[in-house]
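This follows on from our talk about sequence and fold. Please put the record directly below this note.
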Amino acid sequence: MNKIWRLLSVVVLALGLGAAALLARPGQPIGVRAGLEGMPAAAGQFERVTGPAELSFPADFGAHPDTQTEWWYFTGNLRGEDGRRFGFQLTFFRRGLAGPDVRAQRSSNWAANQVYLAHFALTDVQGGAFKQFERIERGAAGLAGASGNPAFEVWLRDWAVVQTGEREYRLRAHQDQLGLDLNLTDKKGPILQGERGYSQKGPEAGNASTYVSLTRLEAAGSINLDGNLYEVNGTAWMDHEYGTSALGQGQTGWDWFSIQLEDGRELMVYTIRRADGSIDPFSRGALIEVDGSIRTFSALDFSVIPSAQWKSPHSGGIYPAEWTIRIDQLDLDLQIAPVLADQELNNSFVYWEGAVDVTGSQRGRRLRGWGYTELTGYARSFEGGF
């Protein structure tokens, strides 16, 4: 997830963005800063996710334009040949401007019913630096889009992920003095989160997403940073979600963890936070075994205990900075620590997304790993739409 419904206010297209998407010059970013307040409702009705669906890949890695919100989230931990450590994020969001019931067929190649937003970020651990970039573009005229037929690809201008073979992908992004070019090899295939891909986020019908992950992507390629080229290797993770939903009443944000253990397993957990400080019962988790089998957990099965804080000098938000994740039934105890304190993105909306190190134990056996953590709603509540 729990990217859960970030784009509902993410792309959020503040007043006038729909028009701006049609009027912006070709190849130029839309000069509208999205806002979390006063977002106009999109026209028409969008499809809602109400249960498990029969999924087929790579087709279902492509866009689902009859739903309002969709994203493709790539994160990973990399090391250079000299041991230099990096974390990266490349994320694409799609936001529907008109539901299928009112969507008009228009002859212009520039006419857009979808808007795409993308975030590109790099954590340079040894350099103590975090670089972040954002682009917004119409889903028309080839400027941005996503497809699963005949192969998966998602792009926003020259930021792109393209399927190059069976379970093989190439990720590319470049901005200013930062470039990333990676080949990704999927070792486990699609992991269906929740109930066969059905991930419910609240009690209302349709307050859910279809949620699929690639939890073990071997990565190899290069980073061009300030004119220096680093050959890198490591592991990456991809989350793909789509649906039509929002945080419910009293839900203010979430903490999401993707963890890759050295023993070949992965753990995903997210907690949805409520305004009174409690954890929402729709919080969930999943342990993916070496063979790709999945064990799921409800909010009662695990705990996420913060043990430190960090205050952002940019937004003033106060974030948890270290955590212990416990799953008593597995005798699993993990400690999570950011590789760099300041990994906060400040673009159309504010959230913390960064690389983390993992240590811990299970039944007396020492564990090590790495991963990514996402924290939302600390600089401003995401209740009601985000």
Remarks:
- The chain has two helices and 23 strands.
- The helical segments are 7-10, 17-23.
